[in-house]
Every structure is written in structure tokens, then in C-alpha cells.
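haha ok so turns out i had the wrong file open the whole time. this is the CORRECT one, sorry everyone. sequence first:
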Amino acid sequence: MKAYVMGNYTDKAFQGFMKDPTSDRKAVVEQLVKAVGGKIHSMDIVRGPYDFIVVTEVDSFDDLAAIKLVVEASGAVKNMTMLESIDFTKATTKASKIGYKAPGQ
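then structure:
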């Protein structure tokens, strides 16, 4: 499954970047994702409410959860948000078959 992972670095991580400004975080992320049998498509440092975004391919959401546990437990990342890509046509096809009435209808 394709997924998008975003997060924020902590003060601890920024201190590490300042000690070693050439630290290749993409290589570290690739190792993490490979450890669960996945691959990354891209990793970017971004400006905005998140510090980074990773586009990845893994077998299951459990794989992402395992990565989140390891990374956030290290104290280097916080606010890790994982978004799973979905097949919207499949979802809307299923939704069209569900009978639902909003309150008052």
C-alpha cells in the first residue's frame, strides 16, 4: 500500500543535525522501511506545519505503525502522521450501495 508519512523533528534531532549537518536521513529512512519489507519513493524536508514528508510503499498499516513506534521512541521525531492512499472509486462504489439517511431526512 502506498502511504504518506509526515512528522516533526524534536529539539534533540535538531541538535544532532547541528553536530552533523551532512547526516543522510533519507538513507536511515530507507533502512527503516526496508526492515519491514517496504520501499520509499521520496523523502523531502518541507516548510509548513511538518518538517518532512515521506512517500512509501509497505505491505500493511501495521508496518507503518511499527516504524512510528521505533522512530518516536527514539525521541528524534514527534507528531508522526501516516496517511494511507486509497482507491477512491472502490470506496465510492461501496458507498453508493449503503443506504443512509441524514438526520431529519
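The two ends are 37 Å apart (CA to CA).
again sry for the mixup
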